[in-house]
Design brief:
alpha+beta; 188 residues; 8 strands; 22% strand
């Protein structure tokens, strides 16, 4: 099993101050999926708003990159401790040329080392039933839709948002999804 030392930072909802880790990621057989701390990640292929990978289960964006020798992994305007996986400490210290982990800005932690391959495979292979979606629904205002139609469209827009190639398109899809979610919240 191939593994590499990486810097991983949650971007969704945090900008440059999200939780961050340095640890070993492992790869799927195809190399398209990365695993870390019980999560599966796939590349956004340049379509991310702030990140370059997304969590397959939640859709949250992450920044995942190699670790830097000069310890400048976190964005220069970012802040917060970087959590270092205990089993990766010796390799990380070699890379940065230090004998000990700095007392400030870093913390040693244990992470989940099991690869959630079954869960991720099920997520990747789940097919969306396109027959449930009538294209005319997209042209109705949110107030004209039933609760079931709102739920179906919201799920479809979430999928489209993840697959959107360009940021402008992704933002447009996200805005439509938020409008539908607000209408659904009003009814609940």
């Amino acid at each position: 099993m191939r593994k590499e030392l990486k810097y991983i930072e949650l971007k969704s909802g945090y900008s440059d101050n999200g939780p961050a880790w340095i640890g070993f990621v492992s790869f799927s057989k195809s190399g398209k999926t990365l695993y870390f701390d019980g999560k599966g990640f796939q590349s956004l292929d340049g379509t991310g708003i702030q990140g370059n990978y997304f969590d397959l289960e939640t859709g949250d964006e992450y920044w995942i990159s190699g670790v830097k020798k000069d310890m400048s992994d976190r964005h220069r305007f970012g802040s917060g401790n970087i959590l270092v996986e205990k089993r990766s400490l010796s390799e990380y210290l070699k890379i940065i040329g230090q004998d000990d982990l700095p007392k400030s800005g870093y913390e040693l932690v244990e992470v989940d080392i099991e690869k959630p391959t079954d869960k991720i495979n099920n997520l990747e292979n789940a097919s969306v039933e396109n027959t449930e979606i009538d294209e005319k629904l997209y042209f109705k205002s949110p107030t004209e839709l039933t609760v079931e139609q709102l739920e179906i469209l919201i799920e479809d827009l979430k999928r489209e948002e993840k697959e959107a190639k360009y940021n402008k398109g992704r933002r447009s899809i996200k805005n439509k999804r938020i409008d539908l979610e607000l209408e659904l919240d009003k009814r609940n």
